[in-house]
Amino acid sequence: MVFNVASFITQVAVLLLLLVLVHKPLGFYLARVFEGTKSTRVERLFYRLAGVDRNTEQSWSIYLRSVLVFSAVSILVVFLLQRLQGVLPGSNSLPGVDPWTAMNTAISFATNTNWQVYTPETTMGIFVQMCLLAVQNFLSAAVGIVVVVALIRGIARTRTDRLGNFWVDLARTSFRVLLPMAALAAIVMLIGGVEQNFWSTDVTNQAAGITQTIPGGPVASQEAIKILGTNGGGYFNANSAHPFENPNVFTSLFQVFLILLIPSALPYAYGRMVGDQRQGYTVVGVMGTLWLASTVLMGWAFAGAEGTATAAAGGLGEGFEQRFGAAQSSIFATATTLTSTGAINVAHDSIPPMAGGITMLNMMLGEVAPGGTGSGLYGLLILAIVSVFIAGLMVGRTPEFLGKKIGPREMKLTAMYILVTPVIVLASAGVTVLLPDAVANAPASGPHQFSEVLYAFTSAANNNGSAFAGITTSGPYLSSVIGVAMLLGRFLPMVLVLALAGSLAKQPKIPASSGTVPTHGWLFGSLLLSVTVIMTALSYFPALSLGPLAEGLLK
Amino acid sequence: MNTLPRFLRQAWTALRFLLLATVVLGLLYPLAIFGIGQAVVPFQANGSIIKDSAGKPAASALIAQVSADNSGTQSPLWFHARPSAAKWDPGASTASNLGPNDPKLLDAVKAARAAIAAAEGVKESDVPADAVTASGSGLDPEISPAYARLQVPRVAKAHGLSPATVQAMVDRRTVTGLEAFLGQPSVNVTELNLDVAAAAPGSAAPAK
User: Fold this and answer.
1) Helix, strand, coil in percent for chain B, rounding step 5
2) Does this entry carry the keyword Nucleotide-binding (chain B) (predicted)?
3) What is the separation of C-alpha A25 from the centre of its chain, rounded to a whole number of angstroms?
4) What is the 3-state secondary structure (H, E, C) of A250-274?
5) Cβ–Cβ < 8 Å for B50, A204
6) Does residue B208 register a pLDDT over 50?
7) Residue B204, CA distances (Å) to A161, B58, B77 in order
8) What is the C-alpha separation between B193 and A281, in angstroms, rounded?
9) B95 phi and psi, to 5 degrees?
10) Is there a contact between A407 and A504 (Cβ–Cβ < 8 Å)?
C-alpha cells in the first residue's frame, strides 16, 4: 500500500476549502439558535410534556446541576435497559448485557466517549443501538455544546448570575442543529452505500457453495450522528473500517468533513455572541493550524511505514482497508483523535509507532483542534485564559479576558481544568501498569504493551473512545477504572467551566486600556498555540517517551 | 428550602426529557431515514445485495465472500480476498490489532508470503502487501490490481477460461478515476468471482 502524496494534499485542500466555506453560515446559524428567544409550537408542547419552564434562566450552579442530573439519569436508564435487553423487543435474540459491560457502555455513551468494551454484533440488538446508544449520541453531543454556550454567555454578559436554561438549550441544540444536520448526512451516506434496514439477509453463492448471513440494521441514521456529534461508537465492531459503515473513499472523506464540521463552526458563533468576530477567527485559526500541522505530521508517519512486520509485508496494509488507502486513513486518524470522536477507519494498534504516538498526542492536547462538539471550544477558551494570564505576568498587570478580570478565583478554576485530565490519565495508567494482572490484558510486549495501556486511559479521560484495540478491557478492573476515568474526564472539566462562566458573568465589563493584551490577531494566536503545545508536552512527554517514542526510535 | 425535592423534581424532568427525545431521535428519525432509503435508494439501504441469474440473493457487493477450509486456506478455484482476522465472517468484523513490530504479525506475514508465492507460482517478492496483511474490518472485499493479476492464471485454468478473458474481467472490476486517486486502485473480489462463475457455468462444480 503506497502513500499517495498528491491524493493526501488534494484531500486536505478539499477539506480546508469546504470548512472555510461552511463555518461562517453554520456558525451564524448556531449563534442564532443559541441567542433565540422564540419557541416553535412543537417545542412548546415538548417543554410542557417534559415539565420544563422555558422562560426561567438558571444560575451556573443550577445549570451545572441540570447537566449532572440529566447525565446521571441517562446513564441509569441506558444501563437498566441494556440489562433488560433479553425481555425487550428488538433484541435480535440477544440476552441482557453483562453488568460490567452495561455500566461501562452507559457511561461511555453519556459522556460522548463511545469507548466500546463490547462487540456490537454479538452484544447489542437493534433496540439498544437505535433507541439507547444513538439517542445518547445526539444528547451527549448537545450537552457538550450547551456547556460551551453557557461559558460564552458568561463571557458576554455582565452583572448577572443567569446563564440560560439548560433544558431549552439542550432541546434547541438537539432538534434545531443536530437532528436536521444528521438527517441530511444520513441521506448522503445512504446514497453512498451505507445500509438502513431492520433485517439480516441470507445470501448464497451457488457456484462456490458459500452461504453467508449479511447483517442489517439502522446503520445510516446512527452513523450520521456518530460522526457529526464527534461520538465514534460504531454500529459494527470494525467501526468506520466496516464496509457497511463506510463503503468507499468518498463516504470516508465525507465522514472526516462531518467530524470537523460543528467544532470548527462554533468559534464563529462564539465571535458573534461576544460581539467581536476577530475573537472567533483567532480561535479557529489556532485550531486550523494545529489540525494542519498534526495532519501533515501524521501523513509523514504513515508514509514512513516503520515497523518490522510492516517492512516484511512490503508496506502498510495490516489493519487498513484497501478502498481507503494510506492517505485517507492518515487524515481520518488525525481528525478522529483531534476531536472527541474516536471512530476509526484503520486499526490504530497496527499503524506505524510514530503515527500511534501522534494519535495519542492529539488526544493529550485536550482535543482542541477543533475538538469535540462544544468541548473543543471550551478547552481552547480555557487555554486562552492561561495565555492572557501568562501575558499579564509579562507586562505586570491583572490579566483580562474580553473585559473580564481574571482574578485568583478564575485562575484557580482554570489551573484545575488544565490539571484534571493529565492527572486522571497518568494516575490511572500508572497504577494499572503496576498490576501484573491488569497489564496482562494488553497482549503486546515491550513499549507497545505500555502504549496499549496508555492509549486506553488517554482515550477514556479525553472522552475519545478509540483504542489500541489489542487490549482487552471487558474485565471488572479495567472496565470500571476506564468507566471512572470517562466520568471524571467529562464532568470535572464541565464543573470548572460552568463555575468559571458563573464568576465571569457576575463581573462588570472593564473597558480595554493600553495595558490590555488583545486576545485576537497573530501575536495572541501564536501565544495560544505555544501554550497549548507546551502544556501538553510538559505533562505527557515522559509517558509518550516510554511508549510510542521508544518503539519508534529503538530499532 | 429542602434541596432533595428540588433534585428529585429535576431528575423527573430529566427522565421525561429523555423519554420524549428518544421518541424523536430514537424512533421517528431512524424510521424516516429508513423510509427515505427504501423509497430512493433501496439497493444501498438493503445492504447492496447482488442477485444471481435466478434472482436469488448471492452476495453483498460490499462484503468479502470467501470459500475457505477450516484452517483458513482459500479455495484455489476463486480469486482470493485479503487475509482476515474475522475469518471473513460477516457477523464478526474485526482487525488483528497486532502492532507494527509484533513478532506474531511478522511470522504471519512471512508465512502468508511464502504460501501465496508457492500457490501462485511466483517469486516471493512479487506478492503485494495487501495479500499478506489482514484488513481493518476483516470483511474487505477488495484487493490491489497487482494481487488480482497474480491470481489470473490460476483462476483461468480452474475454470477453463483464457487468461486474457479473466484479466478483462479483472479490469472491468478495477476502480479507476477519482475514486482510485483519492483512495487507491482496487478490485472487488466478491463481484469478480460472481463474474467468473457466470462466465464459466458448470466448471465451478467441485473440480476434483
Assistant:
1) 50, 5, 40
2) yes
3) 23
4) HHHHHHHHHHHHHHHHHHHHHHHHC
5) no
6) no
7) 77, 15, 8
8) 53
9) -100, 170
10) no
How many Cβ atoms are within 10 Å of A73's Cβ, its own excluded? 20
User: What ipTM was reported for this prediction?
Assistant: 0.96
Q: Tell me, what's the pLDDT at A156?
A: 97
Chain A residues in contact with B44 by the CB 8 A cut-off are: 190-195
The torsion angles phi and psi of A119, rounded to 5 degrees, stand at -95, 110
Q: How confident is residue A515, by pLDDT bands cut at 50, 70 and 90?
A: confident
Chain A residues in contact with B15 by the CB 8 A cut-off are 73, 77
> Which three cell numbers mark A480?
470500571
- Distance, CA of A88 to CA of B109 (rounded, Å): 45
Q: Which secondary structure element, helix H or strand E, spans residue A203, and what is its range?
A: strand A201-205
Q: What angle do CA A438, A538, A386 make, to 5 degrees?
A: 120
- Closest-CA residue in chain A for B200? A207
What ranges do the domains of chain B cover? 3-43, 67-199
- Looking at per-residue pLDDT, the higher value among A422 and B1 belongs to A422
Range of the domain at A520: 5-553
Spatial contact of B74 and B80, defined as CB atoms under 8 Å apart? yes
* Cell numbers standing for residue A305: 511505514
SS3 state at A482: helix
Q: How many whole angstroms separate alpha carbon A286 and alpha carbon A26?
A: 19
Q: Say how many domains are in chain A.
A: 1
Q: Which residues contact A432 (CB under 8 A, 6 or more apart)?
A: A438, A439, A453, A457, A478, A481
Element (H, E) at A145: helix A134-156
**Which residues of B fall within a CB distance of 8 Å from A317?**
82, 129-130, 132-133
Is B140 touching A (CB cutoff 8 A)? yes
Kindly state the cell numbers that stand for A457: 486511559
- Indicate the residue type of A424: I
Quickly list H helices, chain B: 3-21, 29-40, 42-45, 103-120, 129-132, 145-158, 163-172, 177-182, 189-199
Cα separation of A284 and A268, whole Å? 8
Longest CA span, chain B = 89
Q: How far apart are CA A353 and CA A310, in angstroms?
A: 11
In this model, does residue B205 exceed pLDDT 60?
no
> What are the Cα distances from residue A226, in Å, to A136, A458, B32, B182?
10, 20, 17, 23
**pLDDT tens, B63-82?**
999 999 988 899 999 999 99
**Helices then strands (H, E): number in chain B?**
9, 4
pLDDT band with cut points at 50, 70 and 90 for residue A555: low
Q: Is the pTM of this model over 0.90?
A: yes
CB atoms under 10 Å from CB of A225, counted, come to 29
Cβ contact (<8 Å) for A183 and B90? Answer: no
Place of cell 490579566: A399
* Bridge pairing between strands B57-60 and B142-143: unpaired
Contact check, Cβ <8 Å, B20/A198: no
Q: Which three cell numbers stand for residue A410?
A: 478564575
Query: Minimal CA–CA distance to B193: which of A40, A462, A203, A215?
Result: A203
The answer for residues whose C-beta is within 8 angstroms of residue B27's C-beta and 6 or more apart is A130, A131
